[in-house]
């Protein structure tokens, strides 16, 4: 078994829309989470063996959800995420792991939340939902 991967190298990056597209790490993230979802389609009927549930092979909607939380390092980072959430813009993002594995595709910022305690830093959380095909590049 190999050494564990460093969490600080699990990065969320936003594309600039140019060709070729350049990706910049979303500033200030302390935690990042990726969820791969596959909706099931139940095709069970009266003829199903022992009345056990049967699922449609390869059926259903696939999606990816990315969440992150951290501290704002500057107003530009806060403004960029906020504008994407308010506009509903779908942009290209890249999720990169320390191993070199990446996921890249179009996402929409569906939630930005701010918090701040009087004796702590201004923090935020963000949620992105995939739109369309996600390209997976395995670790080298």
Structure description:
The protein has one helix at residues 75-87; strands spanning 11-15, 23-25, 29-38, 62-71, 90-96, 102-116, 122-130, 135-137. With 140 residues, the protein is mainly beta. Strands 1, 2, 3, 4, 5, 6, 7 and 8 form an eight-stranded antiparallel β-sheet that branches. A hairpin with a 5-residue loop joins strand 5 (90-96) and strand 6 (102-116). The protein starts with 10 loop residues before the first strand and ends with a strand. The model has no long low-confidence stretch (mean pLDDT 89).
User: Which percent range fits the helix content?
Assistant: under 10%
| H/E element order | EEEEHEEEE
| Bulk shape | elongated
For the secondary structure, the number of strands is: 8
Radius of gyration: 19 Å
Measure the end-to-end span.
Answer: 17 Å
Number of helices: 1
Round the mean pLDDT to the nearest integer and report it: 89
Structural class based on helices, strands and sheet pairing? mainly beta
Q: How many strands, what sense, and barrel or not for the largest sheet?
A: 8 strands, antiparallel
Q: What fraction of residues sit in β-strands?
A: 35-45%
Low-confidence stretches: none
Concise structural overview:
The protein is mainly beta and 140 residues long.
How would you summarize the topology of this molecule?
Elements: E1 11-15, E2 23-25, E3 29-38, E4 62-71, H1 75-87, E5 90-96, E6 102-116, E7 122-130, E8 135-137
